[in-house]
Specification:
Distance between the termini of chain B: 12 Å
Order of helices and strands of chain A: HEHEHHEHEHEHEHEHHEHEHEEHHH
Strand content of chain B: 35-45%
Largest sheet of chain B: 5 strands, antiparallel
Strand order of the largest sheet of chain B: 3-2-1-4-5
Oligomer: heterodimer
Number of strands of chain A: 11
Structural class of chain B: alpha+beta
Helix content of chain B: 10-25%
Strand content of chain A: 15-25%
Radius of gyration of chain A: 21 Å
Shape of chain A: globular
Number of strands of chain B: 5
Chain lengths: 373, 83
Amino acid sequence: MKYLEEYRDAEVILRLAEQIRAATTRPWRIMEICGGQTNSILRAGLLQLLPSSLELIHGPGCPVCVTPERCIDQAIAIAFREDAVLCTFGDMLRVPGSDQSLLGARAAGGHVQMVTSPLDALQLAIREPSKQVVFFAVGFETTAPTTAVALKRAQVTGVENFSVLLAHVRVPPALEALLGEESRAIDGLLAAGHVCTVMGTRQYDSVAERFELPIVVTGFEPVDILRGVLRCVQMLEQGEHRVANEYRRVVNTGGNPVAQALVDEVFEVVDLPWRGLGTIVEGGLRLRSAFASYDAARLAIGPALSAGGPERAARATLCKSGLVLAGKIRPTECPAFGKQCTPRSPLGAPMVSSEGACAAYFKHAPKGDAAQP
Amino acid sequence: MCLAIPGRVVRLLAAELPTAEVAFGSIVKPICVALVPEVQVGDFVLAHVGFAITRLDEGEAARTLAALGELGDLGVLNGEAAP
């Protein structure tokens, strides 16, 4: 049965690729916005199946990649406090801050604890009342509700030694920034299916209308991605500027109202610099005043917050992650790709994040490419 | 980090925060269901960083789990970086 499934999938993939080829009569550029989708595309070799007139661009769909550098510096400063423990998702450990990564900080004696859920951090705070336990809250709209649950729980149970270093970012404002550029090179969008399970699809309606382009909510398996691409091409060929849902079995227009209400209760929208992309208006979240006492930023003091030395300046010149995140170049077009920048010694975030485009190309690029280690 | 994995609710736990035991293939983990309070035993949910974020259709869940299993992605449940 298993092989039959695989075979059917391969058949379906080839058939979809054929349909895409047949439907494409003009050159189109479609941006996909989910790091998980980028990975899936590379892993399954989907780029090779698409007609040459169709360009699939990778967008800033990696929350780890766009977490402001300063937030990492703050996290490290907290980790070096005697009285504190910095809890973080594993994904953030290797991302370079101005000076070093959290992994480097841990090696130097910093208190860095890997967690797989914000509730792990809350549990630690309850177990260690003498420590300031800080949760490094990274992630898109998919993750913000989980941080909100942890914060409300802390408030209800009176846990005072728990706080969050907020780095939650909101995708639609970043998209609007990219789409609003004069030299915009994006004709259609594939929106991230899992984010939409929480936020629904309605948030994209105004984006599609205002910027006059099709937005197709897409899953992350190869078959789902090709279905999304096909629908997007069909809409482009017809000049349709609206949101379509090609992940209907998981996503509905309204999303998860319980999650949305919680986010609204705990957070408010704020302008935020996205690493590599500059300040995104309304691109982030901050705590509402009722939860202000849970803001860990006040704990981030000390030498780790220096702007970094000449090494950082050199890295900043070489690293083109901003261009990669904005879809302006492919990772392989960065001069440092695979040379000065590898997953083991990354110049920026996309080469080290599991959802980063640079890491995906490094791992999955076809043989004969510079990517081969 | 976008990654959300489908699993089947096998037991609702009596805990202060709404929690369920969720089976991802052969791995069973406690998952907070505060975001999907209406969930029942037998339902399929999409789990992200230890939380169920939505319920989903059984057929789709089974299909996605099979695909993830083949690609070795279930390791992320134990904190491993995605392959």
